[in-house]
Amino acid sequence: MSKKLTSRAEDYSKWYNELVVKADLAENSAVRGCMVIKPYGYAIWEKMQAELDRMFKETGHQNAYFPLFVPKSLFEAEEKNAEGFAKECAVVTHYRLQNDPDKPGKLRVDPEAKLEEELVVRPTSEAIIWNTYRNWIQSYRDLPILVNQWANVVRWEMRTRLFLRTAEFLWQEGHTAHATKAEAMEEARLMNNVYATFVENFMAIPVIQGVKTESERFAGAEETFCIEALMQDGKALQAGTSHFLGQNFAKAFDVKFATKEGKQDYVWATSWGVSTRLVGALIMTHSDDKGLVLPPTLAPNQVVIVPIYKGEEQLEAITEVVNGVVKDLRSKNISVKYDDRDTLRPGAKFAQHELQGVPLRIAIGPKDLENGTVELARRDTLTKEVVALEALNEKVEGLLAEIQESLFNKAKAFRNSHITEVDTFEDFKTVLETKTGFISAHWDGTNETEEKIKELTKATIRCIPLEMKAEEGVCVYSGKPSKGRVLFAKAY
Amino acid sequence: MSKKLTSRAEDYSKWYNELVVKADLAENSAVRGCMVIKPYGYAIWEKMQAELDRMFKETGHQNAYFPLFVPKSLFEAEEKNAEGFAKECAVVTHYRLQNDPDKPGKLRVDPEAKLEEELVVRPTSEAIIWNTYRNWIQSYRDLPILVNQWANVVRWEMRTRLFLRTAEFLWQEGHTAHATKAEAMEEARLMNNVYATFVENFMAIPVIQGVKTESERFAGAEETFCIEALMQDGKALQAGTSHFLGQNFAKAFDVKFATKEGKQDYVWATSWGVSTRLVGALIMTHSDDKGLVLPPTLAPNQVVIVPIYKGEEQLEAITEVVNGVVKDLRSKNISVKYDDRDTLRPGAKFAQHELQGVPLRIAIGPKDLENGTVELARRDTLTKEVVALEALNEKVEGLLAEIQESLFNKAKAFRNSHITEVDTFEDFKTVLETKTGFISAHWDGTNETEEKIKELTKATIRCIPLEMKAEEGVCVYSGKPSKGRVLFAKAY
Predict the structure, then answer these.
(1) How far apart are CA B474 and CA B471, in angstroms?
(2) ipTM greater than 0.95
(3) Is A380 a member of any domain?
(4) Is any Cβ of chain A less than 8 angstroms from the Cβ of B304?
(5) Which chain B residue is nearest to residue A43, measuring alpha carbons?
(6) Last residue of one domain, picked from the residues B232, B255, B286
(7) Which of A140, A219, A348, A392 has its CA 20 to 30 A from that of A229?
């Protein structure tokens, strides 16, 4: 079917771009920077959504929906947030098209249908939501508000890449309101934990939890918690963030509440989100030169069955056996697809399922029918074995669990072997360019040093790990005192 | 808690608007015509989504996601479709804001960041999707494509009402591609059937299936199938539509395929959608002067339990019993909420749950503890009975099924009693103004007559029913020959 994939060693970036398209996950659209998420890619996102949504509800959150548009006057109310996003806002200025008098059959924007106030297509929804919360909150009895929204957002990025950075993307954004600072801070931590649990257990991607430095914080936040993952090319990827917003948005939108003691106070806020970017992280963590590798939890089909036959009669005999296998596997909640298309040869089917990362492939031919066996192939290790039909159900169940664990362990071993402690700036630069990965180094805590290092090396501080060792030291760049090591890396 | 609802008899429209807000379903936002869907309203929409999504997948469809924006040149390619939607398009013209030099702290649209080509915020996605399908389809082997998208769309309506007509709304839009006309027509019929089944069985709203007249068709369709429901005020509401699009979009976007015989042909298309408008239909079909009435299938909480107590000790004893009840009900997949808030009296809780349409309410006090009973109240009939604890589980299960059926039957009886056959234009006008509802009348099949009747009475042809009796007659307006009765009504 499709031509061979560029290998990771050859050109990692090209490998990624090709893989996304060839595995039928997504493609570029006619709209600059916006992607089409194809059914196979969307099925993976749906599985992520379902699990996250379950976790959000289990922690007491409810879904709601707020407008796509933010009037400019609301958008600019929280100044830091507005400043942070102003440069990438798509703006609606008109509400009507009309026939173009100069070009028959063509349309033009109706100059008479200009909006009095421009509407920003939401790059994030704090402004519109906090403007709404003002009417929802009068007293401490109305708190907390624990709301999440599944939505599309638009950030007019200049350089885009499928899943990793697109002008429009899909995400969820939680927006919570609390009576106390401690409670809001606790919520921000909790949701960062939920993200870490989800990404590790469900996506099999190990992450490091930490907080962002001031310069890397979300615009309008007082603290940004994050989870950071490491891709196979040694670059870091921010997989999710959870923000403690203090009273910034409450002040900007005048959201006050009567406390238990009858005083008036501003409400405390958090927001948190993950996006379709996670699909990019998934691809770049597990996949190989043959294509996608999917953890069983996220695979649209966990098992595919390919019949090897000549003629209708053989196919019928095989299909009869396969029907039993399909039924057995489904009774164990294993998703399975019987690929009996007559338009492709088995070899081409194998290649496609390898490319699309189906965790387990069962092949069954006339010999197998005689012997009561099947051939079982594992996508992650590319190993095959012959399995007796009666042992198949249990075998598959066991292997799916094993693959899930093995993918995580493999990624974790790689990640752990790519955290390097360095103590000199020379080593910093060498490791960054040769070994790559996270660099654990002392930092003097200043914006200036952080900026300078970024300028010189393109590495940024990915996070100050929550589990940072207390360790006195000197800054790898300035030589000034430091209280612990932070993680630097080049990042997506 | 909230003040009394306006009654339906007093002012139906006001009743609806108040109910939507008071029952915490939705509210108007700071953006003209756009609504905020509140958690309780969104929970109902989520249940509708889940069931529809299941039905779409069961009929072989997959989800995908296409861009929010449509470049103007693509939007105008299918001329009828473009003409139909041009007057209500929100248009993005710029991609950046900047500090306003004249107003410190304020932003303005950056005049230098004008898009070369304006982007229409999708009012529907045929254009962007068929432009994409061109690259997905080469041969008959690539067909059919059975894709659905859950998305937000924007139509700049001048007069908006919560759920019923909003500038932004949530919906699903199916877009399928087929090798033959017959197959596409069959798909359009099938999905209209899926909608009818969903709306009747799940939402307990009876519908009439039919096709639209030419003037009421979707812009760009060759046939529009629809389901029409009747609201309690005697106005009709279009609850869903499924369009046979012929080869119009394939021709506009040059989507051809190689047939089995090796010829080139244009692809046949359908599209079909339902939206958050259905929530409006739900409210207007079942609710009463005390508030919302929800069919159990769509109720976020099917059962609410309210403790009646004085002092901590009584509450503890009640809670112990309630915990058992909750566990039992949940084991039957019945959603139940224990409302033990200490900030509201039982009467206020009763009022709130009545307003929010919880199908069954259980009250339990000290007397009940002694007797091993509870008080069980039904929202739809407002009847109460005392039930023995040991019989509760079965009773609740039975009642939920009974309520679902009863709501449907009640709505169907009302609808059936509001289909009136008339044979003179005098009767037509009288029935429309006094009895209201659907009017079944002969029509000569011309656009002119349809227009004239609309102009004189505000009634439109809601549909030509699929199960139209073949009956010779004369047009109620023109006196010209007619082959069967069609359904007229005033409509939302």
Answers:
(1) 10
(2) yes
(3) yes
(4) no
(5) B63
(6) B286
(7) A219
